[in-house]
Amino acid sequence: MKSSRVYDVVIVGAGPAGSTAARVLAEKGLEVLLLDRKSFPRRKACGGGLVWRALKGVPAEVAEQCVEAQHRSALLHFASLKKTFVVTKNYPLISTVDRYHFDYAMLTTARQKGAVFLNRTGCRDVRIKRDAGKKSLIEVTAGGRRFLTRYVIASDGAVSPVGRLLGTPDGRILIPALEGSVRKEEVPVLEDLAPSPRFDFGVIPNGYGWVFPRRDTYCVGVVYYGRFGDRGKSLRALFRRYVRWLGLDVTLVRGVKGSPIPVSPRKEPADPGGVLFAGDALGWTDPIMAEGISGAVISGMEAANAIIEGDGNREEVFKVYRQAIKRRLFREYALSSFLARIVYHVPKLRDGCFSLYGQEIAAIIADVLSGFRSYRWLLFWPFNYLKAIGLFPMRYLKSITGSGDYGSRFDSR
Ligand SMILES: Cc1cc2nc3c(=O)[nH]c(=O)nc-3n(C[C@H](O)[C@H](O)[C@H](O)COP(=O)(O)OP(=O)(O)OC[C@H]3O[C@@H](n4cnc5c(N)ncnc54)[C@H](O)[C@@H]3O)c2cc1C
C-alpha cells in the first residue's frame, strides 16, 4: 500500500462541515487533504433550508451562486389547533438551496483556497499512534493509500464511520427523515399553502412535515422523532400521509430520499489523540427543528479554529475545541432537547403552550435559528411560557382537554 506525504489535517467527509473546515484551514496556509467516498457533486437527502445563522457562515460567492429563493417569513401550522403562526423578519429567515450544487460550491471554494480533494476515496481505517508522544502522527487509510497527518476532522455525516472505527463514545440519537421534490407548475395548490417555508405539526405523529419553496420546485419532507426500528420503517407511509394531507398526488413527488439526522450530540466532541468530530458526526443539529447545516458550518469553523489556535499542541487543540463545543452546543442542548420532547412526545402539552403563546414561541424559534437568541434565553424571559403555564392553570387545563386529533386541515388560515 502506498504511503504519502504528511498533511497538517486530513478531513473525512466533504459536506458543509468538512468543506468549511478545509476552507478555513487552507486559508491559513495549512496543508489540508479532504476526502469523500462519494463522487462530487453528489445528492444528499436534505430540505436545503438555510436558516439565517447558516447563511451567515457561508462564503458570499457560494450564497450568490446557490441560493434559489430567500424567504423573510415562515409558517408554523398546528393541525390539531387549527392555527397557523407566521413569523416575518426583515432579513432572509430561510433561504433555499439544492444540496447537489451547494455542497459542490462549498467544496470548490475550499479547493480554491488550496485544500487537496480526493473524490470517491472512502476512509477505511484511522489509527492513532498513542504511544509515540505528543508529536505522533495519525494514519488514515483511504482509497488504497495511507495518509499521515497530525489531525483528523471527522465530518463524515450522521453515520460517521470514523467514530465507529475509533470506537469513540457516541451517544447521539439518530432520527429518520425523508424528502422529495415536486415541480411548481404541477402543484398550483402549494402557491397558497406554502408561499414561504411551512412546518406542519400534528399531521404525522411524533414529528412534522415541511414544504420549502425553491426556484422551480418545492421540497416536501417529513421528520420522525422516534428511534429507528419503531415507526422508522413506516416513514414512507407517514410521508405519503403528509403529501396527501397537502392535497398532492403522491406520484408527483420525485427523488424521495431518506437519511438519519442526529438530534443529540456525541458524548465527546474530540479524541485527545487528534480527531475532532464536526457536523452530523458531532451531532450538532437543532433538537427541535432538526436543522443541521448551521451546526455543520459552525462546528467546521470551530474545529479549524481550534487547530489553528492550538498551534501544534494537541492537548491545547483538544481543550479549545471541547470548550467551544461545550459553550456553544452542550449548554444549549439540555433545554432544547427537553423542549423537543414536549413538542414531539407530549402533543397536548405542546398544543396547550402554542394555543396560549404560539406567536411568541414561533418568534423565539425563529430568533434561535437566526442566531440572535438561545433556547436558554427562555429561562430568563420574564413572560416565559413555562412560568405562564403555572400562572394560568385553568386556561391551560381547558386548552389541553380540547380536541387534539391529528389530521385536520388548514381551517384557521
Ligand atoms: C431529509 C433531510 C432533510 C434535511 N433538511 C435540512 C434542512 O432543510 N436544513 C438544514 O439545515 N438541515 C437539514 N437536514 C440536516 C442536514 O442535511 C445535515 O445536518 C447536514 O448535511 C450535515 O452536514 P455534514 O457536513 O455534517 O454531513 P453530510 O452533509 O452528511 O456530509 C458528510 C459527507 O461525508 C462523506 N462520508 C461518509 N463516510 C465517509 C467515509 N468513510 N470516507 C469518506 N467520506 C465519507 C459522505 O459521502 C458525505 O459527503 C436534513 C437532513 C435530512 C436527512
UniProtKB/TrEMBL annotation:
GO molecular function: FAD binding; oxidoreductase activity, acting on the CH-CH group of donors, NAD or NADP as acceptor
All residue ranges annotated as the FAD-binding domain in the record: 7-305
Parts forming coiled coils: none
Protein known as: Geranylgeranyl reductase family
Gene source species: Thermodesulforhabdus norvegica
